[in-house]
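User: New here, please read:
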Amino acid sequence: MAGFAMKDCVRLIVLRHAESRGNVGLELDMDPALTPRGIEQARVLGRWLEGVVFDGAFISPLLRTRQTFEEAGLKARAVIFDSRLVEARDRGMYAQHCLPYPATPRYGNPDRHDAWERPFSERVREFMADAAGLPAGLYLAVCHGGTAHGLANDLVRKPEEKQSDALAAPVATLDNAAWGEFILTGDRRGDRLVRWNALAWTPWMSSGWEGSGREPTMARPLW
């Protein structure tokens, strides 16, 4: 990247969970599990990223994101469950259907933000500000389609636009098990969205793929 050294920046990989039972209408509750095809997607992703060790991984506490991280066998020096990354829902929905949420697995540090019912735009902006302040390195955020959309829009929008809905800017969402790559320099002028909707798997791996109707971007390795 012109203008700054890669070693001096935060590289944030924003990964959407693999296909869940909710994505295909098999489960309509707030916390669906992955489908068999979603498990396959996650495992292919893991093979693609074999050997990559993230400096930190931030994971939505919901089941489908945890399963994606686990089935992929992803590695990180620190794993943190972060409720700022949960999907956008109408106010009160998490309180009614999910909370108090069961304890998250012991391989990660428990959520300390209790952001389930906070306004979506507010928690997205806060997460991005905290990510920009991390030590230089390679980081992972495992989240949801709407959350990934909001994070990307926060990255590309001008400061004067930040107070409006984080879902409003025209950045497309991610397919299941796809990711984007953000470069965060600590200076908004140097921040970049350098990849979006990159996939380690292909739609012909399983029959009946119900993605975007286009060929996915085949990802290059992260190292």
